[in-house]
C-alpha cells in the first residue's frame, strides 16, 4: 500500500479587512465583547467588485499549492473541494476550479462537512492515493461566509465569528517509508445537526415559501443558527477524543506532538485543548485572531501559514483536528 504526503500548500484571503470596530458600527457590539468570547480581532471579507467567489479563492490558493509542489497543473489526477458556501447549488466548486486553472479532464468531488470539511477531504484523498488509484490530488477548503451573514444586532453572536478565505494542499504519493499522512479519523453525530445549521433557503424551504410566510420580512431564516454553549461543550470533548484516538492508533503520546493545528472555531476552544494536553505555545498554532472562523478553509490556511513561518519542519509530528456542524469531527496524524 502506498502512503500520501503533503507536497505543496497555499492560501488566499481577500484584501478587505473587517475589524471588530468596523462591526460595532453595524451592530450593538464592541472589540472587547468579541475578543473576550472568541479571541477574534479581525477577519477578511469579500468586497463587492473584487472578483472573488468561493471557487475563485480556492483556485488562487490551489495555484500556489501546485507551484510549491513542483508539479504541473496537468499532473493533478483528482480534485476534492470542501465548502459549505459553494458558488451555486450546483454544479459544485470542484469542477469550477478545474475550469479556472485549465486542468486536464479529471474527476472532481465536493465535500459538504462544514468545519470538518478539510479533514474529511484530506481523508478521501489519502485513501485514493493509498490504494494506488491516483498519484497527485488537489485538496481545497474555501468559504464565502460574508455574503450570508446577518450584520445586525440580532445576528451578532454568529456574524462576528466568520471570515472568508481559502487554503489548498497537494497530496502526492510518498517515496519515504513512514513519512506522510499516518492516519485519519472521522466521526459524526447527526442527532445534534440542527444545533449549528442553516435551514433555509433549501429544498425543504424554498425562497417563495419563505417570503409567503414572512410578507413583512421579519425573521426570515436566511441566516445561520448556532447554539453556542452547546456547540462549545461538545467541541472541547470531541476535539480531545479524536486527537487521542489518532495518537493511540499510531502508538504515540501527547508529548510526541510537535505541532497541533486545530480548526479555528474559537480561540477559547483551542486554549482549552492546549491547557488540557499541557502543550506549550510553540506546539499549537492559532490564527483565528486575524481571520476569524473560515470553516473548511481554516485548517489549510493555518497549516500553510505555520509552514511558511518555519514552525513545521521535516520529521515533525503534525496533528490536525476539527469539529463542526453535523455534528462532525475528525483528526489527521502526519509525519512531515
TrEMBL record:
Ranges where the record places region ACP-binding: 264-268
Documented EC number(s): 2.3.1.180
Chief location: cytoplasm
UniProt cross-references to Gene3D superfamilies, sorted A to Z: 3.40.47.10
Catalytic activity from the UniProt record: malonyl-[ACP] + acetyl-CoA + H(+) = 3-oxobutanoyl-[ACP] + CO2 + CoA
Subcellular location: Cytoplasm
Keywords, ordered alphabetically: Acyltransferase, Cytoplasm, Fatty acid biosynthesis, Fatty acid metabolism, Lipid biosynthesis, Lipid metabolism, Multifunctional enzyme, Transferase
EC class name: transferase
Catalytic residues (UniProt): 115, 263, 293
SUPFAM superfamilies: Thiolase-like
Pfam families: ACP_syn_III (PF08545), ACP_syn_III_C (PF08541)
Residues covered by the Beta-ketoacyl-[acyl-carrier-protein] synthase III C-terminal domain: 247-336
UniProt family annotation: Belongs to the thiolase-like superfamily. FabH family.
Domain notes: The last Arg residue of the ACP-binding site is essential for the weak association between ACP/AcpP and FabH.
Subunit structure: Homodimer.
NCBIfam families: fabH (TIGR00747), PRK09352.1 (NF006829)
Function: Catalyzes the condensation reaction of fatty acid synthesis by the addition to an acyl acceptor of two carbons from malonyl-ACP. Catalyzes the first condensation reaction which initiates fatty acid synthesis and may therefore play a role in governing the total rate of fatty acid production. Possesses both acetoacetyl-ACP synthase and acetyl transacylase activities. Its substrate specificity determines the biosynthesis of branched-chain and/or straight-chain of fatty acids.
Protein name (record): Beta-ketoacyl-[acyl-carrier-protein] synthase III
Species in which this protein is naturally found: Gillisia lutea
Amino acid at each position: 500500500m502506498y502512503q500520501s504526503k503533503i507536497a505543496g500548500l497555499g492560501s488566499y484571503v481577500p484584501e478587505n479587512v473587517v475589524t471588530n470596530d468596523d462591526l460595532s458600527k453595524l451592530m450593538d457590539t464592541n472589540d472587547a465583547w468579541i475578543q473576550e468570547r472568541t479571541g477574534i480581532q479581525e477577519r477578511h471579507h469579500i468586497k463587492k467588485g473584487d472578483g472573488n467567489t468561493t471557487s475563485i479563492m480556492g483556485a488562487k490558493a490551489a495555484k500556489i499549492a501546485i507551484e510549491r509542489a513542483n508539479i504541473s497543473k496537468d499532473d493533478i489526477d483528482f480534485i476534492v473541494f470542501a465548502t459549505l458556501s459553494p458558488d451555486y447549488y450546483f454544479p459544485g466548486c470542484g469542477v469550477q476550479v478545474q475550469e479556472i486553472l485549465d486542468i486536464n479532464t479529471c474527476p472532481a468531488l465536493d465535500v459538504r462537512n462544514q468545519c470538518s470539511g478539510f479533514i474529511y477531504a484530506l481523508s478521501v484523498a489519502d485513501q485514493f492515493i493509498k490504494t494506488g488509484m491516483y498519484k497527485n490530488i488537489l485538496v481545497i477548503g474555501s468559504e464565502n461566509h460574508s455574503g450570508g451573514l446577518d450584520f445586525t444586532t440580532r445576528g451578532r453572536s454568529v456574524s462576528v465569528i466568520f471570515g472568508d478565505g481559502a487554503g489548498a494542499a497537494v497530496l502526492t504519493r510518498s517515496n519515504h517509508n513512514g513519512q506522510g499522512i499516518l492516519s485519519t479519523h472521522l466521526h459524526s453525530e447527526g442527532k445534534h445537526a440542527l444545533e449549528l445549521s442553516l435551514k433555509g433557503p433549501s429544498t425543504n424551504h424554498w425562497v417563495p415559501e419563505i417570503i409567503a410566510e414572512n410578507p413583512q420580512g421579519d425573521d426570515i431564516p436566511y441566516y445561520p443558527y448556532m447554539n453556542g454553549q452547546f456547540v462549545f461543550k461538545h467541541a472541547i470533548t470531541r476535539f480531545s477524543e479524536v486527537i487521542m484516538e489518532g495518537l493511540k492508533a499510531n502508538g504515540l503520546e501527547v508529548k510526541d506532538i510537535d505541532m497541533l493545528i486545530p480548526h479555528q472555531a474559537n480561540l477559547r476552544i483551542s486554549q482549552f485543548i492546549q491547557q488540557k494536553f499541557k502543550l506549550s505555545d510553540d506546539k499549537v498554532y492559532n490564527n483565528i485572531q486575524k481571520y476569524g472562523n473560515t470553516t473548511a478553509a481554516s485548517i489549510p490556511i493555518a497549516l500553510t501559514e505555520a509552514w511558511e513561518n518555519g514552525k513545521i519542519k521535516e520529521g515533525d509530528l503534525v496533528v490536525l483536528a476539527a469539529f463542526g456542524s453535523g455534528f462532525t469531527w475528525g483528526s489527521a496524524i502526519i509525519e512531515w
